[in-house]
Each structure stands twice: as C-alpha cells, then as structure tokens.
Amino acid sequence: MKNKLNIGIVCYPTYGGSGVVATELGVAFAEKGHCVHFISYDQPFRLDLFSDKIFYHEVSVPNYPLFEYTPYELNLTSKLIDVAIHEKLDVLHVHYAIPHASAAVSAKQILATYGIHLPIITTLHGTDITLLGKDKSFKPVIEYAINSSDAVTTVSKNLRDITKENFNINRSIDYIPNFIDIRLYNKKNNIKRKRFAKDDEFILTHISNFREVKRIEDVIKVFAKVNTEVKSKLIMVGDGPDRLKAEQLCRSLNISTNVIFLGKLKVIEDVLSISDVFILPSLTESFGLVALEAMASKVAVVSTNSGGLPEVNIDGETGFLSDVGDLEKMSKDVIRLFSDPVLLLKMKENAFNHAKSYDLPKILPQYEEIYFKLFKE
Ligand code: GMT
C-alpha cells in the first residue's frame, strides 16, 4: 500500500481565504512528500514555489462566439478528467461548492465509465453556503454536489450547522478548521512600524477583498471615532468593489492623512507584525482566516459575532465581539484596547496562545486521514 498520494486540488486562485487554505494545504502536503496537482483557471495567488512535488494545471476557457456565457464548469470537468487519468490522481480535494464540487462530481461519474475510481473531498468555505446556497437557482446543484462527494468538510462548526439547516443533507460532514503556520508569524519589526506610525500612535489594521460582505465602510467609521480619542493610524490591505467608496468616505470624514490604503499584498505577516488591533466587521464570516492570521501575529481582534467568528475570536479574551453594524461598541472596544496597555498586551498574548491551537501540524493530519481513508476504500 503506497504511503504517498497523488492529490488533485481545485480552488479559486484569487485573493481570498479559500484559495489561501487550499494553496497552503497543498504546499504542506508536498513538503510531506505527496505529489500535489493544483487545477484552476489561474495561478493561485500564494502559489509561487518551485518544487518537484507541486504542479499547476491551468483550465483554459476558449472564447467561442456562440457562447454568450462561457461554460467554465465544463472546461474544468474535462481538465479534471485529463489530470486524473494522466497524473493518476488518488484523491481530488475541491474547495468551494460552486462550480468546483459539482464539476468534480461530474468528472468522477465520467471517470467511472472508464473504470477509474476518483474519491472526491469537498471543503465548504462559507459564501458557497451562506450567500450562494440561499439562491434557489444554485441550491439543488450544491445539495447534490455535497451529497455525492465522498467526504465533506466545513471550516467551522457554525458552517456545518448552517449547511445542515439550509440543505437536505443525507451524509456526515466533518469539521476541520482553518489553520496557520505559526512559524511564519509574530516577527515584530519596529523599523517598519516607524514608517507607518509615530511611537505614540496605535495601528488598527483591516485586510480583506473589500466586498460588500466585509462592510469596510464600518471599518472607516469606527476608525474615525477612534482617531478622535486616541492617536492612531488605520492600515487597509486589499482591494475590491468597495475600495473607492471607502476612500471617498475617508476624504469626507477628513481622516485621509491617517488612513493608508496599501492595496493587495501577497504576504500579510509583515503588516500584521506592526499592528495592534485587527478589525473585521463582516456581515458573515464562516471562519475568518485573516482574524486567525492576526492572532498568530499577536494582534488583538475586534470583530462581529457572525458565523464562525466567535469560535476564533474569543470575546473578552483574544479581543471583542459585537453585533453586525454596532459601530458604537466596536469603536468603544478599540478605544478601550488603545487606552489600556496592560489589557492590550494581555489580549495580544491570549490571541497568540489561542492561535497555536490552529497550527498546521495539528490540522494537516486531519485532512490526511480523510485522504487515506478514501484512497483505501
Ligand atoms: O471572505 C471572502 O471573501 C473569501 C472567502 C473565500 O471563499 O475565499 O473566504 C471564506 O473562506 C475562508 C477560508 O475558509 C474563511 O476563513 C472566510 O471566513 C470565508 N468568508 C466568508 O464566509 C465571508
């Protein structure tokens, strides 16, 4: 029985948590000696390693004049079949239900007609269930893909509950949380910090893809209040549809000189290393990987209590939780942390200690166990 597998990984290559989880999982499996084949329409944004165990297969989508809408899922399905056959995949791990899980299930069924068995593991990340899943036009497909996968995982207990509530699920769902590689974080850099803030200023940071669900205008409004009470800077990392609105809001609130929009960063450890508090006022967040990344960097977190966030950010211990849109409380919480150095230090330490329970060596074997179980079946 072989002890190294050929693993296929399908993910979104764009700036977002599910792509980060998929990429870092694949890289970690490659470091353990497995062969990892990434399949996506573009190079996953954190995948820039040269290794004899990591391969990237691009799904090309031809632009055919007859198609008003390009059927990406069909190209992906064909690519999955091709990679499964020629790279002799032992398992296929797909991140995000639409269209990845449904393409994988189709590929599995087509491969079966060639006498090839390809086990599918689907990881649900959040918006595939909490936003897309609520859209009736996707629901039957998501439901079928979940029920037809060989294993299904969610990144928080909350997401597992929501999945069971919203869909007719006739199978078990495992909970495997997001993870961080703790060795990469918590390298404090005072020289860089001085370039962004004076010694008597605190740094509040937000990182996201600036989509509506992130409520980045709340970040700006909270900072505007904080900034009137405590000397501080706000660092905004990322880009997306709501960036312009956020920049305009800073101008109209007259706080632009204290807000730094850095744009997208591939590596966020450095910016987190100079931050004091991380703010995540999301409408919904299945887990909030970026909050965990902040905690691993010894940064206290002020977030909403939506979705899986209370599992990650422990209220009163690693930071504070608020109802969605409760800007008054979020502002008070940040001001409280910035005004009480003992409390801030305590919460930073607690955040780091809690983040340790999500360290990669604790999480990786949980996926590996599922891979081997499916491979042997
Ligand atoms: O949050 C995003 O906009 C990106 C999204 C994604 O699909 O990449 O992130 C989701 O998956 C992450 C990794 O599992 C989770 O940590 C995020 O909480 C989740 N986002 C939402 O639920 C909104």
Structure description:
The protein is α/β, with parallel strands linked by helices. The protein is 44% helix and 16% strand. It has two domains: 6-179 and 359-376, 3-Layer(aba) Sandwich (Rossmann fold), CATH 3.40.50; 182-358, Rossmann fold (3-Layer(aba) Sandwich), CATH 3.40.50.2000. The chain has helices at 17-31, 72-86, 97-113, 127-130, 139-148, 157-166, 190-196, 216-229, 243-252, 269-273, 289-296, 309-312, 327-339, 341-355, 360-376, and strands spanning 6-10, 35-40, 54-58, 91-95, 120-124, 151-154, 174-175, 202-207, 232-237, 259-263, 277-280, 300-304, 319-322. The strands form two sheets. It has a seven-stranded parallel beta sheet with strand order 3-2-1-4-5-6-7, with helices on both faces. A six-stranded parallel beta sheet has the order 10-9-8-11-12-13, with helices on both faces. Helix 3 (97-113) links the parallel strand 4 and strand 5. The mean pLDDT is 94. The structure holds ligand GMT. Ligand GMT is lined by residues 16-19, 21, 96, 125-127, 130, 155, 178, 209, 211, 213, 284-289.
